[in-house]
Amino acid sequence: MKITRFNSIHKKLNAKLVEFAGFEMPIQYKGGIIHEHNVVREKVGVFDVSHMGEFEVRGADALPFLQYLTLNDVSKLSEGHIQYSAMCFEDGGIVDDFLVYHMGDYYMLVVNGANIDKDWEWVNKIAKKFDVQLKDTSDEYNLLAVQGPESLKTIQKLTDTNLSEIESYHFKIGKVAGIETIISRTGYTGELGFELYFKGNEADAEKVWNELFKAGEEFGIEPAGLGARDTLRMEKGYCLYGNDIDETTNPIEAGLGWITKFNKGEFVASEVLAKIKADKPSRNLVGILTNVERFIPRHGYKIFSGEKEIGVVTSGNISPSLNKPIAIGYVAAEFKAPGTDIEIEARGKKFPATVTKMPFLA
Amino acid sequence: MNFPENLKYSTDHEWVKVEGNIAVIGVTDHAQSELGDIAYVDIAEDTTTLTANEVFGTIEAVKAVSDLVAPVSGKVVAINESLNDDPAVVNDDPYGKGWMVKVEMSNPAELDELMDAAAYKNMIG
User: Fold this and answer.
1) Residue of chain B whose Cα is closest to the Cα of A318
2) Is A53-136 in CATH node 3.90.1150.10?
3) A242/B contact by beta carbon, under 8 A
4) Is any Cβ of chain B less than 8 angstroms from the Cβ of A351?
5) Nearest CA to CA, how far is A67 from chain B (Å)?
6) What is the three-class DSSP state of B103?
7) Domains, in order of start, for chain B
8) Do A227 and B36 touch (CB under 8 A)?
9) Can you give the pTM of this predicted structure?
């Protein structure tokens, strides 16, 4: 199992460590998932997400290559700008979802940690037809997500870069705690937040962590684990690769039509996806609320309408902010309208639920 | 982690406190710690009897769902309804306010199948 350069800090903090994406990662610290969730919504929390992968794309064909590889329109990106995107196999199944950074003279893709090997193979396969140079820099970068309403004030104490000038889905390169950092106004929580990419050894990583916690002390900063990251993203209706989207799902049914830009020209699976869009997908990813007490829908539970199996739950948990269960899942297209009554099967019983709009938390 | 000496423990991470012929049942400190924040304890209100080794309810925690498995058989004499409003007491006080159900034991010999604190501690490692 791999470790990040914050591993000894996690251990010192008595984090509960689990294997995730081949790394030993904290699922929660001593406060627990609900507490950490609330810290991010109300104050500021810090996630170690160094398991994420980073690929650099250089060369004369970098733009046409990314236009062909990815779903979104990379020509719309300018330097300092970030785009949410995804890539598909030829059959339209999703390889991964990721962020594309326009770094000036190159592009950076930030991919899911669990998918680094698969993505690297696919990206290289597609790259054969293009004049590009690819580099996997995943092991070089440390990545901290500093998220919550007090995140800006916390980081601002450690950098000369004016953070309030960085708009959502933009970044600047500056020094944070004396270390060159890609300061990216992104996150996976729906809160004001920044993701800090920086290279360096364990001592550098610990320096940034410690300085952040010193700076954020007055705001109530706390570490947050993957458990809170999951409930935070779920409330906002963000897809999680491996749960809500994977190789067996396509972007149209997953509600990612908004990043699938057919007018940019041909790309991998563009014809397949255009046909799915024209024919309307046979199932759709929807939000689900339960109508019964003391039941939480979970990944893999089957969805029914009467005796007919019509879908499956892909994510579910208690929403700490709303204090009620929320879930995401696929249902057959005829059941996708908000307000449609469905049932979720668990432990041999069926629990009533209703299709609802996402996000759960505005 | 805390495992009181005066309790009996099951392989399903439940504890039993014997008070005469009444068994008070809850989940162990280890169980609540593994489950993390407990969102709901679901024991059907019309539950009248427990049968040893059979499921009598579920614990919905933020990390996972877990069955409650009866450590002993008997007639249910009380269900801790305060857990409906405040399930987090199972995290805070698993052996006290976090108790779940009280039964009048129909076969106290079943207690012999349970572990003492030392054996339970040994089992969870």
Assistant:
1) B62
2) no
3) no
4) no
5) 39
6) strand
7) 13-124 (2.40.50.100)
8) yes
9) 0.94
